Amino acid sequence: MVSLGFRDVAPAEKTAAVGDIFARVARRYDLMNDLMSGGMHRLWKDDFVNRVRPQPHEAILDLAGGTGDIAFRMAQRGSRVTVADINAEMLKVGEARAAKKGIAGLTFVEANAEAMPFADASFDAVTIAFGIRNVTNIPKALRDIHRTLKWGGRFYCLEFSTCEWPGFAELYDAYSLNVVPRIGAAVARDKDAYQYLVESIRRFPPMAAFAGMIGEAGFKRVTATPILGGAVAVHSGWKI
Questions:
Q1: Are 32 and 67 in contact (CB under 8 A)?
Q2: Closest CA to 190 of 19, 26, 4
Q3: pTM (global) more than 0.90
Q4: Tell me, what CATH number does 69's domain have?
Q5: Number of folded domains that form the chain
Q6: How far is CA 46 from CA 37, 54, 75, 157, 158, in A?
């Protein structure tokens, strides 16, 4: 059994349910990110890409990259970016946005992070932002990420985590559990989808536990950097 929000379900049920959720919210996904975070997700993503340090000669895989926010930033620095997402509707949004912005150097591929259609040692870096918690079998996905990286390659993950600031943690929990689903109902017309997204954050492993999972997948020099006291975290590891 795996977690689907606060419920435990069979793995196949989670994969299907998450796919349906993101198909429903794809068109309003970026607007919802702005509203839920007060625009702060843009700053987190800028900081994240600065940590990745994409280079013009590099091939980079952006997993769960859907609408393109991370991929666009890396492509604008000259990297050749493959955007992979299990959800075709999210990829359609990303392709349309890329065309509208005139951003080249992107390849969009429908792919499951647990069994990717890429050869061993294909990429200099692999990134995933706010997507790993939606993967059904996270350890399996981490192992496949390790497989697709070249020797000396790096993995960077941006994800919601557990806030450890006293006081703020309680406010953050109250906001996310009570306000975010209402925003989802009003803007995306889908309260249930955003109820799941909030619950999935609560079920995601704390920073230290997730760092341990990255290490178990074969990565070295694993780090976990908290943002907003751990409400968001950047994890990284190297294939060395």
A1: no
A2: 26
A3: yes
A4: 3.40.50.150
A5: 1
A6: 14, 12, 13, 13, 11
